[in-house]
Amino acid sequence: MELTRMRPADRTGTAQRPLRVLLTTDWWEPVVNGVVASVATLRRELLALGCDVRVLTLSPGMRTRSEEGVYRIGSVSAGLFYDRARLGMPAGRRVLREILHWGPDVVHSHCELSTHMWARRIAKSLGVPLVHTYHTIYEDYTHYYSPSRTVGRKVVATFSRGVLAGTDAVIAPTAKVARLLGGYGVHRPVHVVPTGLDLHRFRPARTVAEQSDVSALREDLGITAGQKVLVSVSRLAKEKNLDEVLDLVAGTGREDTVLVLVGEGPYRAELEARAAALGIADRVRFTGVVDPAEVQRWYRIGDAFVSASRSETQGLTFIEAQASGLPLLCRRDPSLDSVVIAGRTGWQYETAAEFSSRLDELLDDGALRREMSRAAVEHARATCGAQEFGQAVLEVYQQVQRRRSPLIIAPQAVAA
After folding, report:
1. Residues 95 and 55: beta-carbon distance below 8 Å
2. What pLDDT score does 68 carry?
């Protein structure tokens, strides 16, 4: 589709109306992942700050449609490359005409493929800033497209430089991601803005109804009153490194411990086979697909949250777990340094022996576990607020607009 360029001089009167923000993402509800959680939270907070916000995403089928501020462009499955992935169709002219007529002041893309191409074209045609949040550490996914991690990293670096070259600013969820982009040779302004979460649903079981629900869930999973529960919430995919979690749980030799893997994914059969081979199938529970509106129930059944993932950009499920009162026991990763406070909200481990030692310390000392649970809740609520997230992103928009402002031609200058 040919888009008509709008001169900056034509975009007047923005100070008299709410800032118009177009968020673009290949993933959207009802899909459940970190990108969707981040974009949904940002949309809600920007609306609360008085912005006019719309979303451009992909339809789950070939039909293009719009609904309540969400535009969905028809798409086809790309599951051959990555489970549940989709590619946008070169259609959607009506939707794009609507977006151009609406006229966003800032375009903020959140994925690097289909919708990012539309984001670039819309921003260029309207002469408005393009901001991009780099959510995914692609080099942790090289097993999907390259037998060599070294070659895969070079491909990712080249790809990332190309995608980000046309942006006015890049948002990185953590300093780890910012350093990674620097190593790729990305030379755009990078702002580190941790993703905030709406944590009102995530809290320890306190009411009689919540405590009864915990008991019922444990009973449904065949977990006895004397058993300790380790919870992991993630997509069951190879990059989440859940093989290691199974190995570690088996290596502890703790017969009083049950591991609950909350989620579904293409790697489930391999994980079930590994649990059986390790002789711990009777101490591992697979919940399958969980309604995202009820995921907080599954955190509450746990005594600790465990993860061996190395593909996190910030670890939103780790924060949800903390807010639910779960101490964390996770593989060491710089992206978690501000989340896992050693000895206070949990530990990061490097070896199997360290994992086993810290787990024993946590599960065998009830007073310590209760104190770490309280600290985890306090830390999550103090550092990961959704309001602060929305305000920080809005400030990035304002900065890129100020940087572009000298290029805007005043109406009287045009007349002259």
Report:
1. no
2. 85
Query: Which amino acid appears at position 79 of this protein?
Result: G
Distance of alpha carbon 94 from alpha carbon 120, whole angstroms:
18
pTM over 0.85: no
CA–CA separation, 169 and 366 (whole Å)? 47
Contacts of 378 (CB under 8 A, 6+ apart): none
What value does the mean pLDDT take over residues 144-159?
74
127 to each of 8, 12, 79, 334, 401, how far by Cα in Å?
6, 12, 35, 37, 11
Instruction: Count Cβ atoms below 10 Å from residue 206 Cβ, excluding itself.
Output: 10
Residues 358/342, Cβ–Cβ less than 8 Å: no
Per this entry, what is the length of the chain?
Answer: 416
Note the Cα 78 to chain centre separation in Å: 20
Could you tell me which residues come within 8 angstroms of residue 164 by beta carbon, excluding any fewer than 6 positions away?
132, 134, 170, 181, 186, 188
Helix (H) or strand (E) holding 192: strand 190-192
Give the pairing type, strands 169-172 and 228-233. Answer: unpaired
- Peptide bond before 30: cis, by omega within 30 degrees of 0? yes
CA-based torsion, 231, 236, 241, 245: positive or negative:
positive
C-alpha torsion 278→283→286→292, nearest 10: -130
Which segments of 250-349 are extended strands (E)? 257-262, 284-286, 304-307, 328-331, 346-349
Nearest of 199, 217, 253, 140 to residue 384 by alpha carbon: 199
Q: pLDDT digits over 316-368, tens only?
A: 899 999 999 999 999 998 888 889 999 999 999 999 999 999 999 999 999 99
Q: How confident is the model at residue 94, as a pLDDT?
A: 83
- Domains of the chain as residue ranges with CATH: 8-196+385-415 (3.40.50.2000), 208-383 (3.40.50.2000)
Q: State the DSSP string of 115-168.
A: HHHHHHHHHHHHT--EEEE----GGGGGGGT-S-HHHHHHHHHHHHHHHHTT-S
pLDDT tens digits for range 208-243: 999 999 999 999 999 998 999 999 999 898 889 999
CA separation for the pair 107, 94 (Å, rounded) = 18
Of residues 172, 207, 201, the one with CA closest to residue 186: 172
What is the distance between the alpha carbons of residues 408 and 232, in angstroms, rounded to a whole number? 51
